[in-house]
Protein: tRNA(Ile)-lysidine synthase
Amino acid sequence: MQLSPGAAALEAALARACPGAAPLAVAVSGGGDSLALLLAAAARAEASGPPVAAVTVDHGLRPEAADEARSVAAICARLGVPHSTLVWQGWDGRGNLQDAARRARMRLIADWALARGIGRVALAHTRDDQAETLLMRLARGAGVDGLAAMAPERQALGVTWLRPFLDIPRADLRAFLTERGQTWADDPSNDDPRFDRVRVRQALALLAPLGIGAEGLAATAARLGAARTALDACTAEAAARIAVEEAGDVVLDEAARAALPAEIGRRLLLGALAWVSGADYPPRAEALAATLARLETAPRTTLQGCLLVRKAGRLRIGREPAAVVGLSAPLDALWDGRWRLAGPATGGEEVRALGEAGLALCPDWRATGLPRSSLLASPAVWRGGALVAAPLAGRGTDWSATVNRPFRTRLLSH
Structure:
């Protein structure tokens, strides 16, 4: 069948962003953008493209959401695409609703995909979303990172997230659906002025007569994205020269860090904090500045679940012991988001922080050369109340503790 220009553009975008034959998941809400992604991906699969599965998240916030999920399921059945609906019930009425829903949605989808052996998930963000995001972040005083374009590919939660339609206007997706005779649901929150994105969308219409439109703003975001990539590369190069990864800590040469351009030094610190803490967002600029000011007069301070210790010309950024008290994980899972332990398990083991009680059972810990505070926050293997192994503290030589991803890779992963 001859493809229309709109359908051909969507198919070409999918082929560029999602090459190969590996299975592909698509996140489908029932709105126009995600339904266009679903139909285009299903058509590609039918034409010998990668197999497709669809997933819908019902956030449980609107009574219509369950009906919309059932509608998506019916469309998928017609297309021959396997479909799952995931339900989120975690909203406690506090904080930023849209941000909490977005994070929960990503976690649910990632877990669902990984359980099915699917390593990549396509999202239906468009050129319009790029422009709206830039304006929202501009209003918050964001710098290069915040204003940079959403990446077409990103690694997070063990999954590759793909955005094949970032260069395509939302109107083209709706035209594609109309051409296919496919209706879609509009989420009422898309017209609710309580939400920043809705107000920004309305502002874009007012800015159009000034020549400020989605296409130009998306191009600006892309240029800022290129600048961010260059800054990341410079930061990674600086890390290779002046940063040492030691037992899950990052140790910086303070004099060398001070000699870096201010932005590179700042990014290096933020990268270390993010890698050690696993936090989704960096600390605010004011909090970072206040922390560095404290270090001018005090040898140690804390920030974002990290302990920063200045000693003998070095700045060590490690996990704050108090931040991991009570944190546990099965032996076959990551502990604190990054540690994996392996050894001669016999059953019933779990990973917890070594802590004061565990360190007291490691008489040779000083021989490791690691600071006491780092060992207190280090991973250990426990069976009930009994310490089985503490690899970083010198107990249990047949056990190992490794970080799942090197520090420098964190500096290059947006």
Remarks:
- The chain has 15 helices and 17 strands.
- The chain has three domains: 5-218, 247-319, 323-408.
- The domain at 247-319 is CATH 3.30.465 (Uridine Diphospho-n-acetylenolpyruvylglucosamine Reductase; domain 3).
- Residues 214-242 form the longest helix (29 residues).
